[in-house]
Write a structure and sequence with these properties.
globular
Length: 356
């Protein structure tokens, strides 16, 4: 039997290589909850909301412990080309949990606190990570240094835009205009960032050797980044009557929101084909990885964003899509959660004694 002291040491040791992208679990749980709320599944939405508060809190405790026990590895991850962008899940998780507080229980104060935390994290991580990538002396080649995980920077940016728009819809002047302008600015910057990064990622796709191991789950963020851009754009369209400068931009907002949605939709068959190539044709093993939360998140976000776009643009003929993707997201979330529990037990419990 393992004593509490040995168990604690074993758990602390596991923090050494804890993925910086583990906040993707809170991102995925939060957006599936929000999609369930929008699609009239309040019990599921509230259950996942309560769970997400716990997940978010525990992840911050684990992050603080990792920083305390392994500061060198923590900061080395931050400036690593493959692991560094995973830190942006902290921003997106904060914004999405803030959106849950706003949408599910109308707690605007908690939403504003998380909005502020997300902005502080976004500023710190954006200028730390990308400055480090720029000035570091030893850099990987493009095929070894970039992945779909880089688009988490886009997701983080757009998550702040979406939460800003949600808060703007529920506060009075003089801050309503400022929040809507801030949401618009972040939405536009997120779109530009996607264009920059996606150009490099697509170039890496098509001009470098691609092995099954290279197709990590964060490549689903290719779609997820466009889905959350669609959500933020839809919220801005809904807010337009209360902000004159948005009202003048409505044709532009509608055009780019549809542009984002169609781009995200294009990625879905492509990613499914590549997943079949990876796991069926190439027989790459399918086992739990914390990065799989980065594949659950886009499914839930596509359901939520499509529903919001239908409301904003009255595209009622697309009404069949959100429920389908919500059910797929719930199945994927359940599979990832059971994988997480199994992996946690395997890591924390002692191995069985050898049979004689």
């Amino acid at each position: 039997m393992m004593t509490p002291t040995l168990l604690g040491k074993r758990m602390v040791a596991q923090l050494f290589d804890m993925s910086p992208a583990y906040f993707g679990m809170a991102m995925a749980t939060g957006i599936v909850s929000l999609a369930a709320q929008r699609l009239d599944m309040p019990r599921i939405a509230m259950a996942l909301f309560g769970l997400n508060i716990a997940i978010y809190g525990v992840l911050w405790v684990l992050t603080a412990l990792r920083l305390t026990y392994y500061p060198r590895q923590f900061f080395a991850d931050m400036i690593d080309h493959l692991r560094g962008p995973g830190f942006f899940t902290m921003v997106a998780a904060s914004s999405i949990l803030g959106s849950q507080f706003v949408v599910l229980i109308a707690d605007y104060r908690a939403g504003a606190v998380l909005w502020g935390a997300a902005i502080v994290l976004w500023i710190g991580l954006t200028y730390t990570i990308f400055t480090a990538f720029t000035i570091k002396q030893k850099k990987p080649t493009l095929d070894k240094g970039i992945s779909g995980g880089w688009l988490l920077a886009v997701v983080a940016t757009q998550s702040i835009a979406a939460l800003s728009a949600l808060l703007a819809a529920h506060i009075g002047q003089p801050y309503k205009l400022e929040l809507n302008f801030f949401a618009l600015s972040m939405w536009l910057w997120g779109g530009m960032l996607y264009i920059w990064m996606m150009s490099l990622i697509f170039y890496r796709y098509t001009f470098f050797l691609f092995s099954p191991g290279d197709l990590s789950p964060p490549y689903w963020i290719n779609m997820g980044a466009m889905a959350i851009s669609t959500l933020a754009g839809s919220l801005l369209i809904i807010n337009a009557p209360d902000a004159p400068f948005l009202l003048s931009l409505v044709p532009f907002l509608k055009g780019f929101t549809v542009f984002y949605w169609t781009t995200g939709t294009w990625w879905i068959p492509m990613l499914l084909i590549l997943a079949l190539w990876r796991h069926v044709y190439k027989r790459f093993p399918l086992r739990y990885d914390p990065l799989y939360w980065g594949a659950v998140f886009p499914l839930g976000m596509y359901a939520a964003s499509t529903h919001e776009m239908i409301s904003a643009l009255e595209f009622n003929f697309l009404g069949f899509l959100p429920p389908v993707f919500l059910y797929v997201a719930l199945i994927a979330w359940t599979a990832a959660f059971f994988g997480f529990v199994s992996d946690l037990l395997r890591r924390c419990l002692p191995p069985p004694p050898p049979t004689t």
